[in-house]
Amino acid sequence: ETGVTQTPRHLVMGMTNKKSLKCEQHLGHNAMYWYKQSAKKPLELMFVYNFKEQTENNSVPSRFSPECPNSSHLFLHLHTLQPEDSALYLCASSPGGKRDTQYFGPGTRLTVL
Amino acid sequence: AQTVTQSQPEMSVQEAETVTLSCTYDTSESDYYLFWYKQPPSRQMILVIRQEAYKQQNATENRFSVNFQKAAKSFSLKISDSQLGDAAMYFCAYRSAEGAQKLVFGQGTRLTINP
User: Fold this and answer.
1) What is the mean pLDDT of residues A73-93?
2) How far apart are CA A17 and CA A85, in angstroms?
3) How far apart are CA B7 and CA B74, in angstroms?
4) Which of A53, A55, B10, B95 is packed most tightly, with the most Cβ within 10 A?
């Protein structure tokens, strides 16, 4: 595998379910990101991790809980979601530092029933 | 806060022709980066080209080039010799060179290539 991978590619869940999204990067990067892409809205940053430490939380509701066990893996734990949380969730990674470029995974299409 | 605006929700071009996608942004910073990303139906967000604000020379990547007008805060993407595989959503994005690492995206332009 190369680049940034995400699993699952599609997920359907009920409002009372608990599920997790997984992201893995094979680029040797030190920073990882979660973005949300909703229909007819620009991509929104959710979380940033640098060297496993969360450095940005863009006022995301607590029903989204990120986890970064190491620089190569990033999870997004989901619980008690709402239908309006249905979106494409994109993971990205970058080398880290102020002048780097982010590379994206293919995304997980989430539908909340 | 920075904002990015793409005023063309949809564009179309004939195969082998040239098309230009528009992007404007608003910032009070002097040092930043601008990007064009492509998102085909597969949903993978792919980096097309990157421009550093302190460089006057416009970035080019094969058939893709930008027209960066810093004073006008404009950053357009030109695609030459359009190919069917260029069909996608194109997003313009801004990143500060200092402080927050987040990318600020525009709303996107859907590009259709007509055979």
Assistant:
1) 95
2) 13
3) 12
4) B95
